[in-house]
Design a protein that fits this description.
Layout (H helix, E strand, L loop, with lengths): L1 H39 L26 E6 L1 H6 L2 H7 L4 E6 L5 H15 L7 E6 L1 H5 L6 H9 L2 E6 L2 E6 L2 H12 L2 H22 L1 H9 L3 H14 L13 H8 L4 H5 L7 H17 L3 E6 L4 H4 L6 H12 L4 E3 L17 H19 L1
Parallel strand pairs: 1-2, 1-3, 3-6, 6-7
Antiparallel strand pairs: 4-5
Amino acid sequence: MSTRVSRKLRLSVAALSTIGAIVALIFTGFVWLAISAERNLYMFPFKQEDWYRFLLPSQFVAQGKPVIMLTGPSTMRENLRWGQMQEAFPNYHIYQGGISLGTIEDVMIALKLIEFAYGEDALPDYVILGLGPRFVANLPPERPMKTIVDTYSAWSITTGPNGVVLQKKSAFGAVLAKMRFIGKQPERFRTALRAWAGHFGRSVEEWPLGETILRKAGLLNFWKARVQRQLRSVSPYKFARTAGLSEADLAVYMSGSWWESVFDWDARANGDAASERLRQLMKFLSEHGIGVAVVNMPERSYSRDRFAFEYDDYLGVIRDGVGGAPFLDLSTFTDDSEFFDAEHTLPKGSQRLTDRVIVWVQSLLK
């Protein structure tokens, strides 16, 4: 009896071990697939939750060329086209580091996390920093970046007047955080599969024999549309549309939200604190030998008309904070027709804006 039970137990343990090994092997395969896509295809993982990208070591491997990081709020992700930037600066690796709901504090968290988690060599060589009133005002007060790093990384974050401080968690805390992050991997894996599907799909349509077969089968246009759909799904852009919100729809969207606190922000009363946050960021960049160019991103007239502060006071806060860093004010560069909402541009607006920033940055790098 005892022998029979013992044998059943051994068989159960062996079966569970086999299943566990298979699951681990499949998971490892998907991780490899994702890392390959992130390194070779420059896919944008976690499109809807871009904070998680900073937890991926594959995003910060040595590139063999200097790295320019586009960073700041989500307007940097939407308004500066990664492909245009990479084409304009072939001797650099362009990293799209725009942060949804990001502020100065969140950029500091991202940079310090890169340094502490992946090493100082993983930091960018040059930063193009996008600004806007919400970003400078550090609003809204509750934002995802700090919470996500606290929850899913080996580091805990404290913020305050003295800036951003990262502290290493205990070994148990670090392991627990990594286990939690496993739950976020399925979206990363789905993105990798889409990236490889788009990559191989484009290879087939660009292969003369494949193009001929698709054309004769009457499937070429269908095939190209499906490939484009896959590639759009792994791009950073969320607002790749042809038309923006009407002013009435925009008013409904923004009224009663935390945007009211941005409109009511007092640049004179709160300017010193905002300038100090910028100075701390500039000091970090300077101490690490990181070049910087600062761009005040465009706003739709709907927002500019509702700011309670004098815009010159806001610009004074920026200039006080960035000191002698190169600064370009593009607040009125983009027409209202080129916006999707209050600050994110449509593709036609972002392409024109990107060209303007490229010309300016090229003059700085020369």
